[in-house]
Every structure is written in C-alpha cells, then in structure tokens.
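Quick illustration, no need to memorize.
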Amino acid sequence: MAKLTSRAIDFTLNTRWEDLPGAVKHQAKRCLMDTLGALVAGAQTPVAKIMCKSALEQFGGDQARIMVSGERTSAAGAALVNGFLGNALDIDDGYRNIKGHPGACSLPPLLAVAELAGDCDGRKFLTALVIAYEMGIRAGVIRHATYETYHSSGSWGAIAGAAAAGRMLGLTAERIVHAMGAAEYHAPIAP
C-alpha cells in the first residue's frame, strides 16, 4: 500500500472522537445539523416524491429509512434518496476549495450504514462523519488539482461515503482500500 494511501486508511480506521479538537467536534455537529436541515427542506420538493417512488420500486428491502417520510428500502435506496433530498434545493453545505457539497455526499450513506451496523451511538456516528468530510474534501482537492475542468461533488463524494461506511461497518484496512478505490473508479468524471 502506498504511503499516502496508508495514512488515509490509518486515519479512517483509527480516528477517535476523544482525540479530536473541540473545534472539530463543534463543527461536526454544525455540519450534521446543516445537512439534516437541507434534507428536511428537500423532502418537500418534487424530486423527493420522484426519488422516493423510484427507490421503493427499484431498491426493495427494509434495511434503512428514507428520511422525513420514514419509508424503508435497501440501504442503497435510502442513501440514494437521502442524497437527492439533501441537495434538492442546493442549500446544503459547501466548501469553496472543492466547489462542492460534502454533507450531501457523506451523510446519506452514513445514515443508511448506521442502521445496518445497529450498534451506533452519537460519538461513533459523528466520528464517521468527520472521517467522511476529511476524506471527501481531501479527495476533492486532489481531483481539482489533477483535472483542469470543474468536477462535481459526485466525483469525490463517493470516496467520503465509502470511508465513513467502511469505518461504521468495521471493515479491515484492505476492504476499506477496495471500497474507496471502487468509489473513486466508478465516480463520474463529467463536469
């Protein structure tokens, strides 16, 4: 494993809530509330009805909850719908250096996986959210430095979701590398 990849995986696996600075803990809570607010507001849009209907038809199951409506579908279906809800009004958080929305990419898969994992408390959840933001933002900075054209949140956001989900599910270092690699490989490169 390359040195920088190893550092990223170490951060993903070993970051502890207790070790995070107070300002980071405070900001994590703010980011959570901001993204949840955007998601609740987005649930009132036409795209919410369309995506919810599609997920219920195409992603059967009852692994995770679609926020606000409370309907259940597969974890992938819930993450998809909740991601659309979080970004539906384009009022979700943004980070200028990556020209994107880390919350709408990070929170939906984390919500779904938290239900799958079952044993999730606030500290575990917020730690995984911090990991998602850190990994997603760093991947976004690299993406924008590597390609001349603008790339949307989707081009790096899947890496954030994979890191958070891998942490929440207790994946090994090798599996997190593969999950983040698959997320990066299949992420859209289109502007």
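The longest helix spans residues 122-146.
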